[in-house]
Amino acid sequence: xxxxxxxxxxxxxxxxxxxxxxxxxxxxxxxxxxxxxxxxxxxxxxxxxxxxxxxxxxxxxxxxxxxxxxxxxxx
Length: 75
Description:
47% of the residues lie in helices and 13% in strands. The chain has one domain (13-74). The chain has helices at 16-22, 27-34, 51-61, 66-74; strands spanning 13-14, 41-43, 46-50.
């Protein structure tokens, strides 16, 4: 059995539920709407989401700022 390390270790990959929580969505939404757009690490039945993939997805999925959105509604 693996022993837990006594110090915090930086995470390079997260489980899908952890990845969902990290971007503020539920597991079902993550599986249906986010995971298909990510490159995943697969080893046997284990799936991991690289943190860099989450960061890329968030940056690419970000829309206009709230001020820009409000400005479009006024015109």
